[in-house]
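Let's practice the habit of predicting before peeking. Look at the sequence and jot down your guess about where helices and strands might fall. Then scroll down.
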Amino acid sequence: MKTLFHLSLPCVDIESTKKFYINDIGATIGRQAENWFDINLYNHQITFIKAGKFDFNNPNYVFEGKILPSFHFGIIVEIKTWGEIYSRLNELDLNLVTQSTFLKDKKGEHLSFFIKDPNNYMFEFKSFKEDDSTFSH
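Done guessing? Here is the structure:
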């Protein structure tokens, strides 16, 4: 069996969340009901459940001189896909946190950028220089 990741998150508004992930990010819709829906995000399942307002009170942290959100989730993709996504979202004039290269010339070197979704989640797109360095140390 191929191992897949599943994440379930509360959302404030089903339609705006669906629009963002389907139309802007490019995920596909999965199963859905009145108060929840699944998306297929590069063969991983994320479920959004309408839960009203919520607050994770998420502090930030500093990594290599950049202020990053401590509460975030994301997807690791190949560099070509990363570039295509970054270009498309940048052209849509969405609120992207400018791309950065982290761990330059070290194990785990990767490109990264963040975008905020309609629920104020910080969503990260990441691409490693070496495919096998995702867990290297």
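How did you do? Residues 94 and 115 are 8 Å apart (CA to CA).
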